[in-house]
Amino acid sequence: LKHFLTIEGLSRELLIEILEKAEGFVSVAQQAVKKVPLCRGKVIANLFFENSTRTRTTFELAAKRLSADVLNLNISTSATAKGETLLDTLRNLEAMHVDMFVVRHASSGTTHFMARHAHPHSSIVNAGDGGHSHPTQAMLDMFTIRRHKGDFSRLSVAIVGDIMHSRVARSQMLALKTLGVPDVRVIAPRTLLPTHVEEAFGVSAHHDLREGIRDADVVIMLRIQRERMNSALLPSEHEYFHLFGLTEKRLATAKPDVTVMHPGPINRGVEMDSQVADGERSVILEQVSNGIAVRMAVMSMCIGTQNSRAQAAGEDHV
Ligand code: CP
Known about the structure:
Pfam families: OTCace, OTCace_N. By secondary structure, the protein is an alpha/beta fold. The chain folds into two domains: 12-133 and 288-312, 3-Layer(aba) Sandwich (Rossmann fold); 135-284, Rossmann fold. 41% of the residues lie in helices and 14% in strands. The chain has twelve helices and nine strands. The longest helix is centred in the C-terminal third of the chain and has 29 residues, at 284-312. The radius of gyration is 20 Å and the shape is globular. The chain starts with 11 loop residues before the first helix and ends in a 6-residue tail after the last helix. The protein binds phosphoric acid mono(formamide)ester (CP). The site of phosphoric acid mono(formamide)ester has 9 residues, from α2. Phosphoric acid mono(formamide)ester is lined by residues 52-55, 128, 137, 263-265.
């Protein structure tokens, strides 16, 4: 793993390797063991051109638990505000010997673009690019599902909400199908469901919440991505909750031991009510905690690839 940009095209074996590695990092992520030296001497920069609470901080914690030096570039006070291009920012940070860039950007494809132009020694990790991809979120969600449900091969997983604008949903559908989940359903108003989603991802599409989550093992709720939406598409919050908001009563059609997830941030009273969000079937905060171990796994694998390539090339700065 040199860069980590998308789930698309990755093998089941690689996804399982990430999950297994993350299992090995849980004790460090939970601070039973303080740190491991896998990225000692490496510099990891967080470049978040879009807001974040969970992803940015868990990447930072993960990098610190791997003993890396961490730079958090404040984009609003950086030279980006004076018109510096993304590539110039990349080149300047590379001149400071940054080894890995964790990047979130509003434009789809930004991290692929950066990976194409990065120095051969650098790694780019996608922390969310536009409506395209959020691969570490999908992997921490897979990790959480595996911890609660074990075998992927018998599961029914329902993803509910704004599928159209969600990079998380895209990455989750790809990961679930790659890991062999036989029944993946997407549930949304017609205006928030991409055309051809069934053929493109091998999922089934539904427009009725109760029917869509019937007998589901896992229900993943999504936020309405207002920031990516044409205002003509914006549903009223009240109307949306009335039709697609998850309540205890509606959840009754799912399996009794259903696991309820949400990548955050939650809009309480829009996609779900607080009783469900904070209820006994919710693992939403566990998802956040699992983000540290999964991001440790991804970053250590990328740094491991950098080290092996440098060793193969006979370089001495590993
Ligand atoms: N799930 C997620 O990406 O949350 P943040 O926007 O807080 O990083």
